[in-house]
Amino acid sequence: MFEYMLVAVGSLMLVAFCVFAVVSRKDDGSAAQNAALFAADMGIKEPRINCVGWDSDGDGYVSCTLSSGDRIIALDCARSYSLNSGCRLQKLNFNRSVEVK
Q1: How far apart are the C-alpha atoms of 79 and 101, rounded to whole Å?
Q2: Which of 10, 25, 79, 96 fits a 20 to 30 Å CA distance from 86?
């Protein structure tokens, strides 16, 4: 009987972990709020903010675009369920191969 109880508890814990792993990579709007604060700190008036809803690399940030007039700024902003806070300028990714013709 004890073995069945351990299996049931273990299975429940595995399901809970999987659900948390999926849910914790989504954003609930916190990134857009962080981007708005970033824009205010930079003195950007009436910014247009677009953020993706998924943390694709698991670093606690989602990609956002902040635009005003003819300026566009690419940001990484902290998502919900993250220990990170605020926004940072996006890092350049040099791991992509580019075909030169």
Answers
A1: 39
A2: 96
